[in-house]
Amino acid sequence: MRRTARRTDARAATAVRRSAGPSLAGMPNSRGWPVSRSPSRSLSRPQAPAAAAMWMCCRCPMGCWRPGSKAGLTAHSRWWRTPWRRPISSASWPRAVKQGCIVRPRRLFPPLLRSPVLPAALLMLFLAAGCAPSPEANVLGYLLAERLGTLSPGATTAPPGSMAGVVQHGGAPLAGATVVVAERNGTPHTAVSDAAGRYRIDGIPPGQYVPAAVAPGYEETVPRGWFGIPQLVTITSTGVSAAPPLELEPHIAQPLPEPLAAGVALSVTAVYSAATNFPPGAQADITAFQFTYNGATVDSLRLYLPRGLPPDARLPLLLMVYPTTADNWWPVSVGFASQGYALVALSPIAARGVDIDGHAQDARVAFHLAQSGSLSPHIAPGKAVALGGSFSSPILHRLLRDERDRIAGWVTVGGISNAFAGAADYYAGLLEMPPAYEYAVPALGPPNLYPLALLRYSPVYTAASLPPTMIIHTAADRIARIEQAYQLETALRAAGVPVEVFYYQDVSHYLQIGDDLTEAGAEMFYRILDFARRVQAAE
After folding, report:
1. Same domain, yes or no, for 243 and 284?
2. Alpha-carbon distance 10 to 5, whole Å?
3. What is d(CA 344, CA 370) in angstroms, rounded to the nearest whole number?
4. pLDDT in tens, 76-116
5. Is 496 left (phi over 0), alpha (psi -120 to 50) or beta?
6. Each residue of 311-355: pLDDT tens digit?
7. Which of 213, 247, 281 corresponds to the end of one domain?
8. 268 has which bridge partners?
9. Does one domain contain both 133 and 227?
10. Quick check: is 8 in a domain?
11. Per the domain annotation, does 122 fall within a domain?
């Protein structure tokens, strides 16, 4: 009787654990494996590689299971506060199990986990499924390749080969398009199409690649075959491989709801004031907003205005897209607002993950809300100046595709300009990534097979479409190396775009204002102010 009672109690406890708490689909457990929200037990535990790959590709990103207790739920919540939060380490695995996480990654087709054919098998299954792996599956593939020692292709003595093809639009040749072929470690090889739309890229190591192309005013593209599957091009030593035609389509801005404030359910969540020590006496009134757009709630929108504004005051607009939580940057926002600006700040939300266009559309909604007067009547009509840094610089680049005529200039501080080169630095161990971004690069996928994600994070290839630009970077940067700034500067000058640079020797990856203010930070602040005033006055 006692044994039966214990068994009954255990079943009841299991039932309670399975039913308690919200769904955590996509959140990783102690080994970085997300948990499934599927009510079907048979689907949440794939029994065959094909089913697992389809599940990872098109449903639950990595086919794992549920947390088993409130303690486990808390662990997952801590992981998910910001995009790409570092998973619990393998050393913490036993502790996570004790906390109640049901950790079973070794049960996912264990014979294949010990086989070097797994990455290739998963790739073929993803291609057969007709969809690219999710960011979570990309990270899984990276971790597996790292574990199996197949991450680096190793040195090769075989002579390189070449790729040749044509870029077109509507069947007609398109000149001035950039074609990128990236190695597995991200190293890019590029060419620009000529008047006949033709290009040739030399020096490519033998292997299989998916080429990608982009041009100012056009969407990024890769060659696609049946069912929209990207087409591989095999490069042979000393040979010239013909690539399928690359067909570019014009970029068309996504329409926004009308009226916008009502369409995105704009609401005020808080009103308060703040002061900072730089510039001396800096104070601002702050209004916090949230809105809902494209299935997600954006609660990071903030408006900063100088304190004590008269009712008829109208101030020029600064749009600041921060790479991390906007509220953590309040001294910077207060400092700029105190100098006579309406500063609208926004930061990426975790729900978008590595979807750069999703983040850019959120910023675009915030920008239109500001310019329409929905945030405050104190925002003057006219062109704005946009500011961003690090991860948010390519977000602003995507925003500028749609709003080029409304923005007088932009500033990028420690920004990413070429994600392919950044990936090469990452895989070479040259970067010191913050824990929150440790797997951001692998989440974009293998560069040689899925180049589109990295191309979208690479403003350098469409620099000709950018407005007047100010580039700020430190030689001490180990998150986005200063070579990122050099490449963007070179591309802007070649395209004839006005560009100003401020390169300095300091320890900071970001603009520092507050208790950690440096001389370089103060100079940077006043240089940005001067640039903003000049480009807005020129309009």
Report:
1. no
2. 9
3. 7
4. 333 333 333 334 344 433 333 333 333 333 333 344 444 55
5. left
6. 999 999 999 999 999 999 999 999 999 999 999 999 999 999 999
7. 247
8. 289
9. no
10. no
11. yes
